């Protein structure tokens, strides 16, 4: 009897781990596919040559931000909208970096943990979105201009 219980518990544990891995993999697949398509599009239009990072950025419409270098070796960001919209590019020379955006937020807000820092377009202006949890364990989003580091929008205490 004890062997049956051990077998059943072992099998159920294995099954639970398998289902969790499958759900995580399949749940992330649409994002991965979208990012891959955006990278291919940015490369095919010769806007970027070597890709460092790509991620989905969502405001009114979703887009993918592709960060990397162009053929001249300049650090660039390419904003690839959903569908067949026009791609936008931004040379990141003399712009606020992700690290600087995080430091600005850390200096002004009570930050417990920064969740992410993403570059995206808001009203045709490049902004850094910094999401963080504050000391009261509430979720916060702040948007800083990538051009000069000025605060554009704050969504606090969610």
TrEMBL record:
Domain (Cell wall elongation regulator TseB-like): residue spans on this chain: 38-81
Annotated Pfam families: TseB
The entry's keywords: Membrane, Transmembrane, Transmembrane helix
Residues annotated as transmembrane: 7-27
UniProt xrefs under SUPFAM superfamilies: Cystatin/monellin
InterPro entries assigned to the protein according to its UniProt record, in alphabetical order: Cystatin_sf (IPR046350), TseB-like_dom (IPR041401)
Protein name: Cell wall elongation regulator TseB-like domain-containing protein
Lineage of the species this protein comes from: Bacteria, Bacillati, Bacillota, Bacilli, Bacillales
């Amino acid at each position: 009897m004890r062997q049956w219980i051990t077998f059943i518990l072992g099998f159920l544990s294995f099954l639970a781990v398998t289902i969790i891995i499958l759900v995580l993999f399949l749940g992330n697949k649409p994002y991965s596919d979208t990012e891959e398509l955006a990278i291919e599009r940015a490369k095919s239009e010769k806007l970027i040559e070597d890709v460092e990072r790509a991620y989905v950025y969502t405001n009114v419409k979703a887009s993918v931000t592709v960060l990397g270098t162009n053929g001249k070796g300049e650090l660039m960001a390419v904003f690839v909208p959903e569908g067949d919209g026009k791609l936008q590019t931004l040379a990141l020379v003399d712009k606020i970096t992700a690290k600087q955006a995080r430091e600005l937020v850390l200096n002004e807000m009570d930050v417990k943990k920064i969740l992410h820092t993403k570059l995206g377009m808001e009203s045709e202006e490049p902004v850094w979105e910094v999401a963080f949890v504050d000391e009261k364990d509430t979720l916060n989003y702040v948007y800083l201009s990538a051009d000069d580091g000025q605060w554009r929008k704050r969504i606090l205490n969610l």
